[in-house]
Amino acid sequence: MYCPFCRHPDSRVIDSRTSDDGLSIRRRRQCPECTRRFSTLETASLSVIKRSGVTEPFSREKIAAGVKKACQGRPVTDQDLAQLAQKVEETIRQTGSSQVDANDIGLSILDPLRELDEVAYLRFASVYQAFENLEDFEEAIGLLRENTPISEDG
Fold first, then answer.
1. CA-to-CA distance for 1 and 7, rounded, in angstroms?
2. By mean pLDDT, which of 8-12, 44-48, 91-95, 126-130 is the weakest?
3. For a tag site, which of 11, 46, 119, 145 has the least CB within 10 Å?
4. Using an 8 Å Cβ cutoff, are 124 and 113 in contact?
5. Which residues of 102-128 are buried (b: 16+ CB within 10 A; e: fewer)?
6. Are strands 47-49 and 99-101 parallel, antiparallel or unpaired?
7. Position 93 pLDDT exceeds 70
8. Longest Cα pair distance anywhere in the chain, in angstroms?
9. CB-CB neighbours of 88 under 10 Å
């Protein structure tokens, strides 16, 4: 790690702390040459491999924006979408891989979205899984009904 003040090619770590979200580490460093201190923020990079083969950095914002379309007109807040995007990122990071297929991201969105709003889930799944006819919708609704506990009210 180069010192940002004197460009000395080494530094000493004085303190390390995990960030609030647990996804990065803040390190306090000191240069042995000029003795000045500075901080670094270290994160593990996560890349998405698109269907075309292009690789781009993972973005929570893109997750939230993509799901937001499926949630139009539904009682889902921007905060709900931000939490969903965070859950998806945590799920992907737990795999330990630094590169993930776009298709795997779509799959990891489905469960948290189903918990958030079943109608939005159906909308997203219909596009993501390329539903072609009513039978595809009926099958998805049947699976939702099987996995949704019946309330005592009805």
1. 9
2. 126-130
3. 145
4. yes
5. eeebbebbeebbbebbbebbbbbbeeb
6. parallel
7. yes
8. 73
9. 24
Contact 10, 1 (CB under 8 A): yes
User: Please, how many CA atoms are within 13 Å of residue 122, restricted to the half-sphere of its CB?
Assistant: 14
The amino acid sitting at 148 is T
CB atoms within 10 A of CB 70: 21
Question: Are the C-beta atoms of residues 38 and 3 closer than 8 Å to each other?
Answer: yes
Sign of CA dihedral 141, 131, 62, 67: negative
Which helix or strand (DSSP H or E) is residue 48 part of? strand 47-49
Structure tokens given for 98: 């630094």
Q: Kind and range of the H or E element at 99?
A: strand 99-101
Contact 2, 9 (CB under 8 A): yes
Rounded Cα distance between 2 and 137, Å, is: 56
What is the rounded distance in angstroms from the CA atom of residue 103 to the CA atom of residue 46?
15
Q: How far is the C-alpha of 109 from the C-alpha of 133, rounded, in Å?
A: 22
In the numeric block, which tokens belong to residue 43?
A: 């994160």
pTM of the predicted protein model: 0.67
- In angstroms, rounded to a whole number, what is the distance separating the alpha carbons of residues 48 and 127? 19
